[in-house]
């Protein structure tokens, strides 16, 4: 087994979709290793998405990701990173496959309901951004 990192984004939390999304995640075979509710400042959001600092949408992304509560989680499953990216669907919800979390809950390219790490290395970095070792069991 291995692990990935996810966070339910502000639009989905504000709409009351956290429970439905967590249910889909568990039904897809992921074990929740760590979970909490948190609020990012724009600065902390900027640090989390630092790889996108040069992209035209970076300022909007940081503003959006600090606009409301998020639910970060560490998840465990065989092939976790790739399988979770499949479960959430394409970044652009109009291109997301039927049955994916983004197809069901995302509203737009920025308000796209959920994040999923894109590699094992980034999963570890992103997990330690939100959770101390003692919270990871
Ligand atoms: P994350 O799981 O959130 O990392 O999404 P992703 O891996 O599918 O996409 P990526 O890492 O390339 O971009 C991070 C986030 O930036 C996306 O989830 C979008 O919310 C936002 N984003 C990416 N590309 C665009 C874009 O072209 N326009 C806008 N407005 N937002 C974008
Ligand atoms: Mg990404």
UniProtKB/TrEMBL annotation:
Pfam family membership, one: NDK
Enzyme class: transferase
Keywords per UniProt: ATP-binding, Kinase, Magnesium, Metal-binding, Nucleotide metabolism, Nucleotide-binding, Phosphoprotein, Transferase
Sites where the protein binds ATP: 9, 57, 85, 91, 102, 112
Cofactor(s) annotated in UniProt: Mg(2+)
Residues annotated as catalytic: 115 (pros-phosphohistidine intermediate)
Name of the protein described by the UniProt record: nucleoside-diphosphate kinase
Source lineage: Bacteria, Pseudomonadati, Bacteroidota, Cytophagia, Cytophagales
